[in-house]
Amino acid sequence: MNIDACIFDLDGVICDTAKYHYLAWKRLANELGFDFSIEDNERLKGVSRMDSLNILLEIGEKSLDEETKLALAEKKNSWYVEYISVMKKDEILPGVKNFILKLRENNIKVALGSASKNSMRILKALDIVNLFDCIVDGNRITKAKPSPEVFLKGAEELEVSPERCVVFEDAAAGVEGAKNANMFAVGVGDANVLNKADKIISGFENLTLEILEF
Ligand code: BG6
Ligand code: MG
């Protein structure tokens, strides 16, 4: 196999935290006097917190100053943190843990590559911090996906070359980021949304290492 490492997105790949992000954004939209649909929410996947707020405000046709925006992002995050604070270990998506364990048994390195600043909190709740050789998240990057930064940093820390990395992503921006990093991209979800991915899977249940054969 010509793969040395796998890099996993967090929200929507390892756990279904996308639903909690949606609940918190919807609550904020409602408070601001407009609605926010599940379809609108697709545009926020993989997108940083402030960029997500800007998209939300564009949908609600609101124009606000920077200070107000920072306060609103903070408010959304406090609700989100409240939702994820009661997350249990069993909220890890089916098959993910086994798949990562299989990678480790086969000496394939494992990294997290997430835009979230809450990633540590989530990994701890799921009790999987130790499964990762390296964790790159929203606290450690300056450019959001589709920039390749988060993935390149992961490869660098793992001391592997980008062309020998596979990224697992559920967001179009994330798949693009992986391709911009010159890595293989496995899309987790809908092939129509993730049309730039090299391969598509619906989830990790019963997934074998054959997926890493490119
Ligand atoms: C990404 C999510 O993983 O992280 C986005 O897909 C989210 O929806 C982004 O906005 C930032 O997350 P956080 O937890 O730092 O607000
Ligand atoms: Mg995601």
Key features?
binds 6-O-phosphono-beta-D-glucopyranose, 8 helices, 6 strands, single chain, alpha/beta, 214 residues
Description:
The mean pLDDT is about 95. The chain is built from 8 helices and 6 strands; from the N terminus they run βαααααβαβαβαββ. The protein has helices at about 20-30, 40, 50-60, 65-85, 95-105, 120-125, 150-160, 170-180; strands at about 5-10, 110-115, 135, 165-170, 185-190, 200. By secondary structure, it is an alpha/beta fold. The chain has a 6-stranded parallel beta sheet. Strand 4, helix 8 (about 170-180) and strand 5 (about 185-190) form a beta-alpha-beta unit. About 40% of the residues are buried. Helix 1 crosses helix 4 and helix 3 packs across helix 4. Bound molecules: 6-O-phosphono-beta-D-glucopyranose (BG6) and magnesium ion. 6-O-phosphono-beta-D-glucopyranose (BG6) binds near residues 21 and 138. Magnesium ion binds next to loops.
